[in-house]
Amino acid sequence: MRPAWGGAGHAGEAELMDSDALSRLTPWLADHIAGFQGPVTVEKFASGQSNPTFRLTTPGADYVLRRKPPGQLLKSAHAVDREFRVQKALADTDVPVARVLALCDDDSILGAMFYVMEHVPGRVILDPSLPGATPDQRGAHMAEMNRILAAIHEVDLAACGLSDYGPPGDFYARQLGRWTKQYRASETGALPEMDRLILWLESNLPEEDGQRCLVHGDYRIDNLLFAPEAPEIRAVLDWELSTLGHPFADLAGVIMQWQLPPGEEGRGLAGLDRAALGLPDDAAFLASYFDRRGIDPPDSFGFYLAFAFFRMAAILQGVKKRALDGSASNPEKGRRLGAFVPRFAELGLEAADAR
Does residue 203 sit in the same domain as residue 324? Predict the structure, then answer.
């Protein structure tokens, strides 16, 4: 377990900007954040692979800054303005989020759009097997993860001003088209498994069932900030991929992550004795979610899981492309994550075959 946002960056990553950029940021912060007082020091977190993330330390308070990465970006990617909007909208709901403070769309300050939010003390858990925890503690953390996922999907969109946060209808068709386009734009070589998975998904799109809600887009344990000493989620992090869509996309994302190898690299549960560890199996987690929301499970979960693997493969391909182009927040990590793309495509095909 690490501090919020995964801990500070490695040597060479700690500087957000040169002294001239810092001299522009400091007065902007003073003008836009109530109670801000300098001086400010900036430290880059090792996580935040898509949108570089920084801790701002001042004599009075600590803040977190999220900005778009440098370089040529894919259209609609790295939407920090959407992150800002959704977290602001959720401030008074049952979904815990960090309080956002200010959004800057003036590129003359840092060279790209950014926003600032409060720093929330807590734990980011990178390994879902929760090493060192007791079985009861593991079960409590997973129950809390399940509870908050259901809360996200039960948000009253009209009441919090998010009714227009995504287009209506055809969620999976739109998402498949979007991520296929993103994947093609960042391809670095032929991958037959990915081509076969895309074709299968195109041929097996589920019928519309009327479910439309807020979806996080990357809901997993390492995007949740837990209280320092309790299985309580203090903030859901990283809303870049959030939209209005089908709730099973988030649910399948959780199950997808657990199919990966255990440890901080794969961050999965494959091959572990979950019962002995106090962790729910896939079926139990799904059943608990459906029970919380009072809805029926689908006839088959295969499409949703296959789609989750496909989308993550497309995301990691974009990370790899940015690393090769030299525009990734952490190029070494980007290349390492990119090596998983073929395996995600294979697992997507396995999910399709197991439908």
Answer: yes
Which residues constitute the domain of residue 64? 2-122
CA distance 174 to 188: 24
192-203 and 302-325 helices cross at what angle (nearest 10)? 140
The pLDDT of residue 11: 30
**Of residues 6, 73, 77, 72, the one with CA closest to residue 43:** 6
List per-block mean pLDDT (blocks of 10 residues) for the chain, which spans 355 residues. Answer: 34 51 91 93 72 91 89 60 97 97 94 94 94 97 98 98 93 95 92 97 94 96 95 96 96 96 87 98 98 95 97 92 77 80 95 84
Give the predicted TM-score (pTM) of the model.
0.88
| Structural domain count of the chain | 2
Among residues 87, 226, 88, the alpha carbon closest in space to that of 147 is found at 226
Count the neighbouring beta carbons within 10 Å of the beta carbon of residue 353: 10
Going from the C-alpha of 74 to that of each of 21, 114, 315, 348, the distances in angstroms are: 25, 17, 11, 24
Residue 209 has a pLDDT of 92
In a 13 Å sphere around the CA of 186, the CA atoms on its Cβ side amount to 28
239: Cβ contacts below 8 Å, ≥ 6 apart: 82, 83, 86, 87, 97, 216, 217
- Residue 201 neighbours by CB under 8 Å, 6+ apart: 176, 303, 306, 307, 310, 352
322 and 268 co-located in one domain: yes
Task: State the residue for tokens 């880059």.
Answer: 44
Please check whether residue 115 is in contact with residue 28, taking contact to mean a CB–CB distance below 8 angstroms: no
Same domain, 171 and 154: yes
Residues in CB range of 101: below 8 A, 6 or more apart: 32, 33, 63, 115, 116, 117, 118
Q: What pLDDT, on the 0 to 100 scale, is given for residue 329?
A: 63
